[in-house]
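Um, can you check?
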Amino acid sequence: MYGMKNLTKMKDLDALAPEAMKAFVAFDKAALAAGAISVKYKELIALGVAFTTQCPYCIELHAGNARGAGASEQEIAEAVLVAAALRAGGAVTHGTHALKGI
């Protein structure tokens, strides 16, 4: 279901909604371009988000992009654990809504 070859179907989205896809591609490119934050760190941020959204396509693509931008395996591993900590923290803080209080 989540084979990387599915991404070839993005051309169908482009054919069916060309203006929206053009805008998306331009936005994506601009958001990930070097700026105040380097490409390497933007890719590590993207990986952290991909881990929390659990998107296999994003994990695959941004892991490769992060490595290509110079990220080490240790940096990627730390990004995994930062994402895990934030996701766990979200569960803990949102869990307070289930409590009636002492």
